[in-house]
Amino acid sequence: MAASERTTNGELDLPDFTTESYWDERFKEEETYDWLLKYHQFSHFVEKHVNRNERILMLGCGNSKLSLEMYEDGYHNIVNVDFSSVCIEKMKEKHQHCPIMQWMVMDIKDLKFPDCSFDVVLEKGTLDALVANERDPWNMTDEGYDVMEQSLTQVSRVLKPGGYFLSITFSQPHFRRPLLARTLLKWNVELMTLGDHFHFFSFAMEKGKEMSAKDKELEKESMLKRQSNAQGNVKRQYVYVKDEESEQTFLNAFHL
Questions:
Q1: What region holds the Methyltransferase type domain (predicted)?
Q2: Is the confidence at residue 18, as pLDDT, over 90?
């Protein structure tokens, strides 16, 4: 995979991680890739929140080994969804020896499951890809907010009361938490830091549990900020996290 190049204004010219066409082309060539962390690096986080007999929805499964490694660890009732039909067909073929595990072509913004279908919903880097085109995490575009709200509303809808949504991300908590801490999603938000050298973050949301007073206040502040849409003069520093194996780059823009 070729490394990203810089545009004339110095920004990194990234592929569009939000499109089906990008992932279809990538999955045609790439056999497997795990973003952020390997399963063994956060299996303790999964075990804390998931029983092995529970029904699990894997959002944006991609060609990761995560579902297989969880299956081998005793989590057999896994339903994998991805909007790339190329990905799903290849993964279904590759995992015929895991007959209980399911593979479905589906957009996470429009999940086709009935309400309260899953005990656990899990994603690793999928939400990051949804907003990969956002250049200023302090002031997301309306499109960025909308795509996150659509996806998270679907997650909450298909999750059973008392079930967990587990989200693993490289997005800093002060950017991601306001998107997760929403009253309409009907869950609380807990944070754990993962990784030895570069830190990643895992959020656990339990459906039906009341948000903390701090998160309720955070929600108010976030909504007021969005409504005011006060951009001001913004100076940005572009900071990227590069994975050497795939030479893929996600970009975040920060105020100074």
A1: 57-166
A2: no
Structural domain includes residue 173: yes
Domain extent for 115: 20-255
- Evaluate whether residue 237 is within a structural domain: yes
Q: Give the total number of structural domains in the chain.
A: 1
% of the chain residues with pLDDT over 90? 54
Distance CA 205, CA 49 (A): 10
pLDDT confidence tier of residue 111, bands split at 50, 70 and 90: very high
* pLDDT score of 67 more than 50: yes
Does residue 206 lie in a domain region?
yes
pTM summary value: 0.82
